[in-house]
Amino acid sequence: MDEILEIFFQECDEQLQELETGLAALAADRAEDDTVNAVFRAVHSIKGGAASFGLQNLVRFSHVYENSLDGVRSDRIQPTKEIIAVFLKSMDVLSDLVVEARGGASVDAQRVDESLTELKVVSGEAPAATSSPAASFDPAESEAEAFSPVPFEFEPVAFDFGDDFAEPASARKIVTFHPHDAMYGCGDDARNILVALTALAHDKGDTAQVECLTEALPAFHDLLPASSYLTWRVALPDSVAESEIRDAFDWVVDSCDFTLESDRAVTETTNSDASDEADAFFDAPASISEDTIQAMVAQSAGQALSRGASLPTTDRRLTAEAFLDDLAPPATIQRDEEPIALTGATVARKAEAASIRVDLSRVDDLMDLVGELVIAQAAVQSLCQKAGTSGHHELMQGIEGMQTLTRDIQDAVMSVRAQPVRSVFQRMQRVVREASSMTQKAVKLVLEGEDTEVDRTLIEKLAAPLTHMLRNAVDHGIEKTEDRIAAGKSPEGCITLSAEHRSGRILITIKDDGAGVNHKRVFETAVKRGIIAPDATLSEDEINNLIFTPGFSTASEVSDLSGRGVGMDVVKQAIMSLGGRIVISSVAGKGSTFSLSLPLTLAILDGMLISADETTMVIPISAVSEAIIVSQSDVYSLPDGTRIISKRGECIPLLPLGVTLGLAGARVRDTLEGAVVLVVENESGSRAALIVDEICGQMQVVIKSMERNYRHIFGVSAATILGDGSVALILDVSALIAAALSQTENKAALGVSELVN
Amino acid sequence: MPAASQIRALIVDDQASIRQVLANNLAQLGFTQVAQRKDGKEALDYLGQNPTHLVISDFNMPVMDGLALLRAVRENPKTQKTAFVILTSETSRDLVQEAIKAGVNNFLAKPYTVAKLREVLEKVFGPIT
Question: Domain residues of chain A, as ranges?
Fold first, then answer.
């Protein structure tokens, strides 16, 4: 029962989402015909389920909610903005009640009653006059009232369980087909004929009924294995032309008997004994497996007998339940990809498999295993290379095949885990709604790209930072209504939350049309908090980024909402721990934009294996834009000692990787002639050229968190295990680029002392 | 007087939890042949291929609702005689009347008990053993 209850709660989540989508559509005035119905249905379903599970609080609330929605559905009530606001608020209460029923935090009873009253006012059910209508409502009573007085008495259905399902008799062509011993002797297969015949029926959009007659089958000790005993009777729709049927027998016409009768109704082939019929009907298995058919047509009668042995030894049909009775579901042979596919249950099973619910932990296990598989595959590959098997083409081909397969499996598992960001995005509507009512600012949230898919582990982890950022945007980003009007803006603030895929990552942007970052105030605050020196000269970008510094908060009045001492630094940390980056850009008076760039998955990465100062490391391949063999003439030194490389007219700062990471024994090379550099790029297009010793190859690596196992290290985003079992660090390209940029911009020489050129 | 195990039943509801609960309840009554579908359209597809004695359907479903399903079932000579029970918490008198007009065999109100389920089904089939 608990499992079913869990399913119910999952459904509730889906219904709530449906409700939210529908109400949002109504609010935005883009409701379609079915929107109101869908909204109603969502609440109705929650109510129905809750009633079945005895969740009284939920029933009580959803009942009243449903009534109000019914008013809208039946056009009694015009969904004005105010009414939709009531619905939205009630939706939040409903969603909290679901959480409560699930064993979460209990909901403030007053809030529920308040919502109930509002809903009743909407439905005109109870103006404030009746005393506490919410309390007096008894769902059981109302159900009883709704049903008992309906004046009807049903007649029991007169079911004769014997002959119910006889198909309306329609004219059929009956083909009787008995192969001679010689037909099997020639290697012809009776099955091919049956498949051809049923295909004919299928072409006419109908089905064929195949019946195997086993009357001639002797007792086992009399059975001659090479003899043919079986006869088939095939009922085809009348629309199949006689010539088509004859064509099917073209190859075996001399080695079998076949007769063709027309205009006989199928029902004639049934047993006359009614109880037998009923038996046959109720014994009929849902499906006939392919091997039953195989057995039926098996040339070896012994094989057939072994199947039939369990049946009464009479000459009744071999498996009465299997071969048609017109009462039993038609065993239809259908031409599909497979030579024989049975309809009925097979199709039904397919429909059922259209969607299944799987425990997330199982998918996670699968993902882990795939991760291990990737490592193991790499191990085999590297071992084979070491063993000098490059000459063995077949072995190498096999390994390559395995590599492709591993990748396919991995993609498949990833796609199972991938989910549209919709679920988390829609939750944000509520966040903004609450924040805007708390701050008395009118704010609307526009969602874009909700269908963008990302790994679901990531989705879950996005909720907290997004919530915080949106609250922040409402609280600090959007101005007070009077200020907006004074600035000539629309009184209603607008926040856009969008998601898109970009270069193998997901880019989420939160854009508000507020006042933008107040640079002066941020600067002053930072000075006041001792974060920067009063005489520091900072670029606009640097000032913007100050808000990510721990302990920074710009709201001069600490508000209820976002002023709880948790700042943007926490958001930044959360994003970074997901392997993401956060960038702010801001235009005074026009608003600010936060861009989050996150990996699509937290599990696997396409990496380039490089070595620098005898250390093997991995660079995410998505970040590498090119690899260059340096020619000394392209390298220029700046007066401060940093070096840049000029490539196609673009200057890229050079970064000696080993030195930057502080590897033991790393030193700066005097000359870079012939050195290998990798040009890496971050989302915003900034580049840096990393000086490495060697590019060792490309491989998929399974990401193991550094923070969880050790601690954060500059320039390193995670670690991985290579095929030979050794650990390699995965470089944090954005951090390295940031280092390279600050090196050139802030004139901070990173241990580079010698001037070149 | 059919045995419960003889009756082929189909549950139609868009909520998996409701379907599962009902399936469990039917199993308690001795049903062994119970299929499930999630909306009217899927149910019709199923009924077209699988002779069925009893349909227990929700009223309010996406794609094709219970009433439309009922009408379609009654229209098709193959399924005309199939018993049709509507499982609902719908309180609208109109819908109930519509369903009666369309030839519903009985109603089962949510929430229900197993005893109530039996009672409703016995009204349809006579005593179930």
Answer: 2-147, 171-347, 360-419, 421-599, 604-745
